[in-house]
Design a protein that fits this description.
Chain C: GO terms for molecular function: 2 iron, 2 sulfur cluster binding; metal ion binding; oxidoreductase activity, acting on the aldehyde or oxo group of donors. The complex is a heterotrimer. By secondary structure, chain A is α+β, with helices and mostly antiparallel strands. Helix content of chain A is 24%, strand content 24%. In chain A, the strands form 6 sheets. Chain A has a 7-stranded mixed β-sheet, sandwiched between helices. In chain A, strands 7, 8, 9, 14, 15 and 16 form a 6-stranded mixed β-sheet that branches. The N terminus of chain A is likely disordered. The mean pLDDT of chain B is 96. In chain B, a hairpin with a 7-residue loop joins strand 9 and strand 10. Classes of the chains: A alpha+beta, B alpha+beta, C alpha+beta. Chains in contact: A-B, A-C, B-C.
């Protein structure tokens, strides 16, 4: 049965339960193995030398000194690099970017690998790389949006075309009784998963075996296969756990490909792990943006136009542009909508998708601009958003598959105490005399599905094995997907063994876009139903089964038994059916995807409302987010405990975006001068004292058979704007540059 | 990391004998090992002081002075309840610095010896006179507000990152050293050097000299009842100061009998100005008075490219620290030490 | 010249011959002793992922030269508890979902164990947040971490009282 057909909504015994993580014990005891934990015998350590300039050429390297360092086995430079079968510029595998793998001596960004050193120990490889001391012919680098002219986009982030228009934008501007024309800037941010990218590569003939974090097994296998001229099935990837991905670990990155190349060259296994500093360059980032928002409303506070221009960086050798202006197009019921994107080519590593690409940056600007217009209109920010509530998707007029945003607003406001908010800024102080401010923002994130496959095998002992190459980067796939699988088979969770994290398993698709649970879960669900259908056929044909003769019926599995739907009186134990049929395991397969016609019929988004309280020292300007309440509607929640954690995490990313993250480029050299955790701040525990999440009930019969949307990214969206707005409310200062820091509060 | 020889002397004498050009002292390692990984420090010999006996105790001396062994960890000093009660702003400053893990490893002498966190000093590819005399200073015209507004020179605009050193300077601590020529004492005020034309000379230690102890002089505990450290930073915790101040008052009959004020993160050394303290003597505590003192303390500050805000912030930080000190030392260390977000002080110490 | 040393590693004496004094405790554990539970997140003392206990105290193993540790007691995540007998901090982390990707988790747990032994006031979540701020969690599991440390500290205090009684 195609899984795209609507199934009856069914909340099984596992789904909806706050089950603790099935991988919990492995993770708290140190047993959970990440890529760099592997050290096959005979392995060499690889360390690459990063470029210290952003633009120019490498003119010399001291390979003699590096090779002379005790323990160094080989130094690979563009001059002696072994051949790669694939083109580093090849982009035929989805989501792939052009990579730097020592194909020439050109430096395109600071931190680009310029040589690779292999040694018997990590210490020797590290020192060997340092001893190379590259010399350069330097050209003037371009590293900020002001350093080059903007140009039309050649590609874009994933999603809509670069420019979209709905309605008459000029008329919308003309009709506005009040309007704001404001420009917000957001800083370049780097993913910085706690686990730096790492790989352990082993060749056996033309078979390649990898321990490497990946958010997409099949795509990664295809990518490595292409670079090395071998069939994708010759590539094995083990990745039971990723130490965070956030969009940066979907496909092979240049340094990882280099390690594989080196392993083939020396005929020994090779391990390469990026340093923290090396995480700022070749593995993607969220590009800086400069966003101009011109929005207007009529005398009643109804939006006549949202006109959103985004200028964002891209690299000189690829085309990804942060699709920030998309974020304003699906949310509010404006009479006219326009999004436009332009790119600035800089001497930086290619930006890429980073947790809530487009939406995070775009929402930051949009939600602040909305508050600016609400304030200009003399309307409470929440009331202003309610007045502009979109009952159908703005622009297209498509119905939403579901949209409980109004409930999010109301439940969030109630929990937060929004009704007590004084409208004038700068009027609230706490007992310590700290300026206190309240702000809010709306959250919106698409509910995409990719494609995945799964296999479910029921055994005669009443247990099942379910398999898909799903990637768990912390979202909880090991648990939530097993819950879905258990329900699809009508088995208790304990009776289901879930295998994932290996490329030999059915393709689990991409852990990204907040669509993994829906997609891989959809595949598992379909696989379970396939088993149930086959089992029904066996039972119906089995004279000894109470279900004998029910051949045309629909079967459902529950509590380890098979029922004829609508007839509770007839059932048979799953195990018994199999035993009577000879005891051989029964395997079903399933696919998770969304049919194009289903995708076109409805607008599909998760929604939310985030309320923020900030404290600002009135004299010293230090800022703390003292409270965040996020109310989110994201369809069916498979595991509320894990979903809550995802939403907390996203909201903390919102704090990080609003107050902390910024790569600081030295414009003379093009180097990032704060490429470490002491300089590139992300929140620490003391930065997020008060978090609350409300999961608003939402049934969605259209989004997919499970009714699942996604919660991985939406927590950031809305939070950034809510914090910016709360700072305005606390201090009277409207800061249009993110991150907002002490210096922005002074003077 | 460059290869090095590793030696573990058992006594101060052995340690001193082991020293030669290219050697470094290893204490807790939290600063040195980091710089060695960065290629900023490239010693030929690492002399591990961890086995040297006799430098791990905190002792009250006959005259009431307190002597802290050089290898006492930052954490142990804060956990010494008697010490924290007598010198609360020292404990508060220590607890506002780094992390629990780093404080466990880092030694008090190492805290004094830690290098600037200037990004250009830490970047072996950048020009830095402090690291490589005569190379130039890429920090000028570079990124980041973590540079000096006081006491800088054309050669170097780096700041000292230590929290601990700020109250030590305020309390006239003394550094006891041993060297090839014997022992001597260096006043905290003279220990860290302003860059001038020789920014590579960071401290007054001569080559081969070793810190063996710090001493807080008799009478330095007279400020215990009105003593605070305040640290403004870009994260609630685990961040270097954007501006900080240590303030101590000795009160008699409602008036300030003696005052101490030192500022952090504004210069290559803790910044202490005698005139700023003098203006407070004999006065009753008052925000305007404190503002006058703080303004004197910041006299001569240079805003550089765009640091007027930092001068303003440092002055206001000093004012607030003085106000907090005047209000009295909290009976218990705040949950967020030295933070502007520490809960309003409840019960006070009355020294 | 190789350095011979003896460690008490997770309760057992272990002779180690160190061929290179540059080796940090972190790299000794991970690359030479096959104890990979301890993680490398920054290698510079800025993230806490490598936290272990040395002589009962939490430290960043990435900034500790292994050569300095002759005679020391080192406890890593592998020595704290087992799957069958979890340490209270480990159990509380699972219960309160104090992690997501799990990569910073061994360091968080060792840091929490060290913090509690420092005499943490478990009734004050603000003191826990401050005390755990040397451990960065990029996934943002701080809410659960704080609850987990609070509960573990309470439980351990109660167990300690029972033991004393």
């Amino acid at each position: 049965m195609p899984d795209t057909l609507a199934q009856p909504m069914r909340f099984g015994s596992s789904s909806g339960q706050p089950v603790t993580r099935r991988d919990g014990i492995a993770k708290v005891t140190g047993d959970a193995d990440y890529a760099a934990d592997h050290s096959p015998s005979g392995m060499l350590h690889a360390v690459y030398a990063p470029a210290a300039i952003a633009r120019g050429r490498v003119t010399a390297m001291n390979t003699v000194a590096a090779e002379a360092h005790p323990g160094v086995v080989r130094v690979i430079t563009p001059a002696n690099r072994p051949a790669l079968q694939g083109d580093p510029a090849d982009k035929s595998v989805m989501f792939t970017f052009r990579i730097e793998v020592l194909q020439d001596d050109t430096v395109r960004y600071a931190g680009q690998p310029v040589a690779l050193v292999l040694a018997e120990t990590l210490e020797a490889a590290t020192e060997g790389a340092r001893l190379l001391d590259p010399q350069y012919a330097v050209e003037v680098p371009r590293v900020t949006l002001a350093d080059a002219e903007s140009e039309p986009v050649a590609g874009q982030g994933f999603g809509q075309p670069a420019d979209t228009t709905h309605g008459d934008v000029d008329a919308g501007h003309a009709a506005a009784a009040r309007s704001v024309d404001v420009t917000y800037t957001t800083a370049a941010q780097y993913h910085n998963a706690m686990e730096p990218h790492a790989i352990v590569a082993q060749w056996e003939g033309d078979h390649l075996s990898l321990d490497v974090p990946t958010q997409a097994f099949a795509l990664s296998c295809a990518g490595y296969a292409r670079y090395f001229g071998i069939p994708a099935e010759n590539v094995t990837i083990r990745c039971p756990y990723l130490g965070g991905g956030f969009g940066s670990k979907a496909i092979p990155a240049g340094p990882l490909v280099l390690a594989v190349l080196a392993a083939r060259d020396v005929g020994r296994p090779v391990k390469l792990a990026l340093t923290r500093k090396q995480m700022f360059g070749p593995v993607g980032h969220r590009g800086a943006t400069e966003q101009r928002l011109r929005i207007g409303a009529d005398g009643e506070g109804r939006l006549s136009v949202i006109d959103h221009d985004n200028v964002a960086e891209t690299s000189t050798f690829d085309d990804f542009v942060e699709p920030a202006a998309n974020a304003s197009q699906g949310l509010y019921a404006a009479g006219a909508l326009r999004s436009r994107h332009r790119a600035v080519r800089l001497d930086v590593g290619t930006p890429g998708p980073m947790r809530a690409p487009g939406e995070a940056s775009g929402s930051a600007a949009l939600e602040c601009a909305m508050d600016e217009l609400a304030e200009a209109s003399g309307i409470d920010p929440l009331e202003f958003r309610l007045r502009n509530y979109a009952e159908t998707e703005p622009g297209t007029g498509r119905p939403y598959s579901s949209k409980a945003l109004r409930d999010c607003y109301l439940q969030g406001a109630e929990r937060f105490g929004w009704s007590g908010r004084p409208s004038a800024p700068g009027t609230m102080r706490d007992a310590s005399g700290l300026l206190t401010g309240w702000g809010m923002g709306t959250a919106l994130f698409p509910a995409p599905m990719f494609a995945a496959q799964a296999r479910a095998t029921l055994k005669a002992d009443g247990t099942a094995l379910v398999e898909t190459s799903a990637a768990d980067m912390g979202q909880g796939a090991w648990t939530a997907l097993a819950q879905i699988a258990a329900d699809s088979l009508g088995l208790p969770l304990d009776a289901v063994e879930f295998r994932a994290g290996h490329s030999s398993l059915p393709d689990g698709g991409v852990a990204g876009g907040s669509g993994h649970t829906a997609t891989a879960g959809g595949a598992l669900h379909a696989a379970g139903l396939d088993v149930v259908r086959q089992l029904g056929e066996i039972a119906a044909a089995d004279p000894e089964s109470p279900l004998h003769g029910a051949g045309n019926a629909q079967f459902v599995a529950r509590d380890g038994r098979l029922f004829v739907e609508g007839d509770e009186g007839r059932s048979d134990a799953l195990a018994d059916i199999l035993v009577r049929a000879g005891g051989a395991p029964l395997t079903g397969t399933g696919r998770g995807a969304r049919a194009p016609e289903a995708a076109a019929a409805h607008a599909m988004y998760s929604h939310g409302a985030v309320f923020a309280e900030v404290k600002v020292d009135p004299d010293l300007g230090q800022i703390r987010v003292s409270r965040l309440v996020g109310a989110f509607a994201a369809g069916r929640i498979i595991n509320p405990k894990l979903a809550e954690s995802q939403l907390f995490g996203g909201m903390i990313w919102g704090v990080s975006f609003a107050l902390h993250e910024e790569a600081k480029f030295d414009r003379r050299t093009g180097r990032i001068m704060n490429a470490d955790f002491a300089g590139y701040h992300v929140p620490v525990n003391a930065d997020v004292p008060g978090l609350e999440v409300i999961m608003v009930h939402e049934d969605d019969p259209h989004v997919n058979p499970l009714g699942v949307k996604g919660v991985g990214e939406i927590g950031i969206v809305g939070t950034v704007g809510a914090i910016g707005n709360a700072i305005r409310h606390a201090t009277g200062r409207r800061v249009r540059r993110f991150p907002i820091r002490i210096e922005g509060m002074l003077g | 990391m460059k290869s090095f020889d590793f030696v573990q002397p058992r006594t101060v004498a052995e340690a001193l004998a082991a020293w030669g050009p290219g050697a470094v002292w290893l204490g807790g390692g939290t600063s040195l090992i980091d710089l060695m990984k960065l290629g900023v420090a490239q010693p030929d010999v690492v002399i591990d002081l961890g086995r040297v006996a006799g430098m791990r105790s905190v002792d009250v001396q006959g005259d009431g002075a307190v002597r802290i062994g050089a290898l006492v960890s930052n954490a142990d000093l804060t956990r010494d309840a008697a010490f924290a009660a007598r010198f609360p702003m020292v404990a508060e400053a220590l607890l506002s610095g780094a992390s629990g893990q780093l404080r466990n490893a880092a030694t008090v002498a190492g805290n004094l010896m830690q290098h600037t966190r200037c990004a250009y000093f830490q970047d072996a590819g950048a020009a830095c006179n402090r690291r490589d005399p005569g190379a130039g200073c890429d920090a000028q015209g570079g990124v980041g507000g973590g540079v000096a507004v006081l006491g800088a020179s054309p050669a170097c605009i780096a700041v000292n990152p230590s929290d601990f050193c700020v109250p030590l300077a305020a309390l006239d601590a003394v550094v006891e050293v041993q060297g090839p020529e014997g022992g001597r004492e260096i006043a905290m005020a003279d220990f860290h050097l302003l860059p001038g034309d020789t920014p590579d000379r960071v401290t007054a230690l001569a080559p081969g000299e070793l810190i063996v102890a710090l001493r807080l002089p008799a009478g330095a505990d007279g400020f215990a009842g009105h003593s605070r450290y305040l640290k403004v930073r870009d994260r609630t915790s685990f961040a270097f100061a954007t501006a900080s101040a240590a303030a101590g008052l000795r009160m008699e009959h409602g008036r300030i009998a003696e005052a101490r004020l030192a500022l952090g993160a504004v210069a290559a050394k803790p910044w202490r100005v005698a005139e700023a303290e003098a203006v407070l003597i004999g006065q009753t505590p008052d925000a305007d008075l404190f503002d006058r003192a703080a303004t004197i303390a910041m006299a001569g500050a240079e805003p550089g490219d765009d640091l007027a805000w930092k001068i303003d912030l440092a002055r206001k930080t000093a004012v607030r620290a003085l106000c907090l000190a005047a209000a009295g030392t909290p009976a218990r260390m705040p949950a967020l030490p030295a933070s502007v977000f520490a809960e309003p002080a409840g019960e006070k110490v009355h020294a | 010249m190789p350095l011979s040393m003896t460690l008490t590693l997770n309760g057992a004496a272990r002779d180690v011959v160190l061929d290179d004094p540059r080796v940090t405790l972190l790299d000794l554990l991970r690359e030479r002793l096959d104890l990979t539970g301890t993680k490398k997140g920054c290698d510079r003392g800025q993230c806490g992922a490598c936290t272990v206990l040395v002589n009962g105290r939490r430290v960043n193993s990435c900034l500790t030269l292994a050569a300095t540790l002759d005679g020391a007691e080192v406890t890593t995540i592998e020595g704290l508890g087992t799957a069958a007998a979890l340490h209270p901090v480990q159990a509380a982390f699972i219960e309160h979902d104090g992690f997501q990707c799990g990569y910073c988790t061994p360091g968080q747990i060792m840091s929490a164990a060290g913090l509690i032994s420092e005499g943490l006031d478990a009734e004050d979540p603000e003191r826990i947040r401050e005390g755990m701020s040397g451990n960065i969690c990029r996934c943002g599991a701080y809410h659960g971490i704080t609850l987990a440390v609070q509960e573990a500290a309470r439980r351990m205090a109660a167990d300690g009282q029972e033991d004393a009684a």
